[in-house]
Amino acid sequence: MNLEYDADQLSLRATVRELAADRHADAGRSTDEFLAMAASVGLIGAALPEASGGAGLSVVESMSVHELVGGALLREPLLSHDISAELIARQGDEHQQARWLPEVMGDVTLPFAHQEDAPSGDIVSVAATATESGDGHLIDGTKTMVLDAGRAAAFLVSARDAAGTAGVYRVAADGDGVQVDAYDLIDGRSAADLTLRGARGERLGGQDASEAIAYVIDYLLLALSSELLGVAEAALARTTEYVTVREQFGQPIGQFQAVRHKVADMIIETEQSRSMLLYGLAAMGDDPAARRTAMRLTKGKIGRSVRRVTSEACQLHGGLGMTQEYEIGQLFQRAVCADVLLGPASRHFHLHSLERGPSTPTT
Amino acid sequence: MHFDPDPATVAFRQEVRDFLATPEAARFGRRNPSVYHASREEVSAWTRLLSERGWSAPNWPTEFGGAGWSPLWQSIFAEECYLANMPRTNVQGLQMVGPVIYTFGSDAQRARFLPPILRGDEMWAQGFSEPGSGSDLASLRTRAVRSGDVYVVNGQKIWTTLAQDADHIFCLVRTSTEGKAQEGISFLLVDATSPGLTIRPIHSIDDAHGLNEVFFEDVQVPVDHLVGEENAGWSYAKFLLANERTGGAADLPYAKKTLARLKEIVSSRGHALPEGYAARVAELEAEVRALDFSLLRLLGGAGERNPALASIVKIRGSELQQALSELLVESLGSYGAIRHEGWQGDERPFAASGWHLGEGATTDFLYRRAATIFGGTNEVQRNLIAHHALGRSS
């Protein structure tokens, strides 16, 4: 076992950081342009095989992307695209993969619309229905917190057919029967509630999509956890710097023991979060039940920790922590969003406590 | 010791409620209570209505036009107004600078400034903090140089709440660099429309514009707007900050109201909430009850003998605000991520789904991140407590 990034992984991480810095420096560049560039250096579908157009790497690399995107406060829809790529690769048939993977590994946004009840954080139940009609299906149901819905060309919607089998259906965003109620999130990203009434959808692949959906949800839980870690690292770095230069009462505030202990606690939580992410990365290779358990614990633990780290970072910055213009408050906002997406920490701990059966250790 | 409420106090609370229920008063109750800063017009009109009853300055002696109420009655009045969703009056004028002016100001200053404060005709902002002087306020550098019959002021203030609505800003300025920092500070009353004075809004993380930067470029302030003695301003500032001993920063009314919302959520949607949520609400309920009695002790004058009490109320009160608001956001699940405008409009699907109990929760939570920072950071407050108990640290 080796828990350190290798040279290639470090190089990839450096690439992501550079891309993020460039993006911030050139705010005039469009999202489409950014996505095309990100795709060209393999930042979308990094874990997918080269045959699918991916980089042929692993979740270690793809999660590094999400981690550093979070820490850099990028609001581009890289997460949506990566999720959709995974879903299409796992559930789409050959022709669909050939047509759609190049789209999402580019500037065409196809958000995965799965969650139906945002307040409950339920990521398992699917009540949306798919009724056969002609050579396709008609989809009925509501979906919540669909990220980046505003720029979607189409949605990949989870729904059950007449036999109760789970499927994923591509529904054109501007099709009949599609109602998109968009809203901004506090971290500057956007999402929407989707109401589908007899909306035409093309089914991805032919077989039961349960496994693919379960994997993608776990992947998303891990990706959000990765974002949270990136946010914590950034908040910690900025805070460490700030308390070293900010002087009050004739000395840097980092000299005061109370401040030192707070920073120490932030370091503890951030390092523990990194360790937890390693646990999560390791578990992505487990069987679905063990994998789901691991992701709940990972998202729960990292969500809790990073909420604390970013809150304390604001506290140590005083009034600057309340200023929208400054990154530290933005990191706090990002942490809240990444924590509550797919359900806040308490939800995951609660659901975990309800589960029966063994959880597979990873060592 | 006894616990029966004093009949006069019970009657007073009822009198306040009766007044708040009258049509003239009730129309000021805001539909959306999560908007913290009402418009200037609302605040002004509400203050004028109160002043007609002599109620706009609960903490001033009657000789200066105040209600002359005890700290307990002041607290009760504030609580009832909060529960009725009334706009906050201009704290900076009524609670902060007003008492400084009637205590240390000249007769001319009292005559000029107190009546408009009482009536809500003029609004004030507090020019204390600077970019380089937050917790270490005494290190402030905004300079005031005497030149004939004016002070010429240069410098910058920051975190100036509602400066954009203010007619005047009371400022701590440096009038001497000799001796200790505290010994060279003066208290000036500055006209906010002065040439050379620029106000720049600060957009805060709760998406509001309450905070500002104020820049002073050769701003001329008449010498007769100096309060009291030159270089004695620090003592007036300490007096002003000490007036915050009625525990307002703890915002107990908010805690009680939010607790009630949380309990309603538990009883109406408890089955859909994570296990442990109700128990956490119960824990916070206990904290609210404890804080309530700490506040009662403070309002009863216990702070004189027990100087730590004011800091305790501020620390616990602010932490409780954060814990309660966080729990409220949690009840929204993923919807907790939505920016407040997402809740506007009745056509929103989630607005129709019964999640109205969480309305404004996220904005509120972001706002309350400041509670442990303003009014003396909780770190400083803890130092004060330790100082009383353990003496000065080395």
What does this structure look like?
By secondary structure, chain A is an alpha+beta fold. Helices cover 50% and strands 16% of the residues of chain A. Chain A contains ten helices and nine strands. Chain A has helices spanning 7-25, 31-40, 59-71, 78-91, 94-104, 210-245, 257-283, 288-316, 327-340, 345-354, and strands at 112-113, 129-133, 136-147, 154-160, 166-172, 178-184, 190-203, 247-248, 251-252. In chain A, the strands form two sheets. In chain A, strands 1, 2, 3, 4, 5, 6 and 7 form a seven-stranded mixed sheet that branches. A two-stranded antiparallel sheet of chain A has the order 8-9. In chain A, strand 4 (154-160) and strand 5 form a beta hairpin. Chain B has a four-stranded antiparallel sheet with strand order 2-3-7-6, with no helix packed on it. In chain B, strands 1-4-5 form a three-stranded mixed sheet. In chain B, helix 1 runs parallel beside helix 4 (71-83), helix 8 (252-269) runs antiparallel to helix 9 (277-305) and helix 8 (252-269) packs parallel to helix 10 (308-330). Chain B has 13 helices and seven strands. Chain B has 394 residues and is of the alpha+beta class. Helix content of chain B is 45%, strand content 13%. In chain B, a hairpin with a 2-residue loop joins strand 2 (143-147) and strand 3. Chains A and B meet through strand 3, strand 6, strand 7, strand 8 and helix 8 of A and helix 10, helix 12 and helix 13 of B.
- Name the pair of protein chains with the most residues at their interface, and give those residue counts: A-B, 53 and 54 residues
Largest sheet of chain A: 7 strands, mixed
Counting helices, strands and paired strands, the structural category of chain B is alpha+beta
Fraction in beta strands of chain A: 15-25%
Number of helical segments with 4 or more residues of chain A: 10
Q: Write down the overall mean pLDDT of chain B.
A: 92
Q: What does the largest sheet of chain B look like?
A: 4 strands, antiparallel
How far apart, in Å, are the first and last alpha carbons of chain A?
Answer: 9 Å
Tell me the overall shape of chain A: globular
Percent of residues in helices of chain B: 40-55%
| Number of helices, where a helix is a run of at least 4 consecutive DSSP H or I residues of chain B | 13
